[in-house]
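Forum > Structural Biology > Help requests

Title: Can anyone predict the 3D structure of Rubredoxin-like domain-containing protein?

Hi all, first post here. I have the sequence for Rubredoxin-like domain-containing protein but no way to get a structure on my laptop. I'd be grateful if someone could post the structure tokens.
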Amino acid sequence: MFEQKQWWACSGCGYLLHAEEPPKICPGCQRCCYFLNTTCYIPECGGPDYPDPRIVESRPRAINE
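Reply #1:
Sure, ran it for you. Structure tokens for Rubredoxin-like domain-containing protein below:
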């Protein structure tokens, strides 16, 4: 079965990556964090090849950012 890559944002540092599944350890902050699916699912932001700017820009920032 073909899995489409999705956009993922780290809840700790905001690192964005394009992968089929989120990693266990964030490549940006090297911590075990929750990853939010930020894939665009509407034509206005370009579809699934792009992250949804509404989600990425409104993501709560970590305390240490």
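Strands lie at 6-10, 16-19, 35-37. The first helix runs from residue 53 to 58.
Shout if anything looks off.
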